[in-house]
Amino acid sequence: MNVALDLQIKCYMKQLLSGLDHCHARGVMHRDIKGSNLLVNNEGILKVADFGLANFCNASGNKQPLTSRVVTLWYRPPELLLGATEYGASVDLWSVGCVFAELLIGKPVLQGRTEVTHKLLSCKYMLHVASYLWILYIALFLLGEKI
């Protein structure tokens, strides 16, 4: 592993999460977090850009259904792939996880060409992660670690 690169990724992720926290604390969800909407200057300062799909979240009294046709396909969370019309700022966090994985491995993790193939890839990925977490949980339990 390249320590300098790891530190740079950590710095970018901290800035991205801080920026989203700023938005979410003010009731705004971005709804299109992806690499091309993250701008970095020559000093390493990250800015979140393109709020064209942004909308309010947790708006009291506003119960209008939202569209599930937001977020670029490769960064779209499962609930939107399944057509949810009621969701919150968590849709941005799935996208952040996709960006993080992309920074770590150097390419997008979920590269579905259509919504159907992307749903299958997302399910496969989530099952893999869930299996890993259960193995880790059982191993810690068997070792007598407090969980």
Task: Give an overview of the whole structure.
The chain is mostly helical and 147 residues long. The protein folds into 2 domains: 3-111, Transferase(Phosphotransferase), domain 1; 114-147. The protein has 4 helices and 4 strands; from the N terminus they run H-E-E-E-E-H-H-H. The chain has helices spanning 3-25, 78-81, 90-105, 115-142; strands at residues 28-29, 38-40, 46-48, 55-56. The strands form 2 sheets. The chain has a two-stranded antiparallel sheet with strand order 1-4. Strands 2-3 form a two-stranded antiparallel sheet. Helix 1 packs antiparallel against helix 3 (90-105).
What's this entry about, in short?
With 147 residues, this protein is mostly helical. Helix content is 48%, strand content 7%.
Tag the structure with descriptive keywords.
4 helices; mainly alpha; 4 strands; two-stranded antiparallel ribbon; single chain; 2 domains; Transferase(Phosphotransferase), domain 1; two-stranded antiparallel sheet; 147 residues; 48% helix
Helix- and strand-based class?
mainly alpha
Helix count from the secondary structure assignment:
4
Mean pLDDT over the residues: 85
User: What is the class of the largest domain in the CATH system?
Assistant: Mainly Alpha
Helix-strand sequence: HEEEEHHH
Q: Percent of residues in beta strands?
A: 5-15%
Distance between the termini: 29 Å
Oligomer: single chain
Mind telling me the C-alpha Rg? 17 Å
CATH architecture of the largest domain: Orthogonal Bundle
Count of strand segments: 4
Range of helix content: 40-55%
Low-confidence stretches: none
Largest beta sheet, briefly? 2 strands, antiparallel
CATH homologous superfamily identity of the largest domain:
Transferase(Phosphotransferase) domain 1
**Outline:** globular
Kindly identify the CATH topology of the largest domain. Transferase(Phosphotransferase), domain 1
What is the total number of structural domains? Answer: 2
Q: Which strand order spans the largest sheet, edge to edge or round the barrel?
A: 1-4
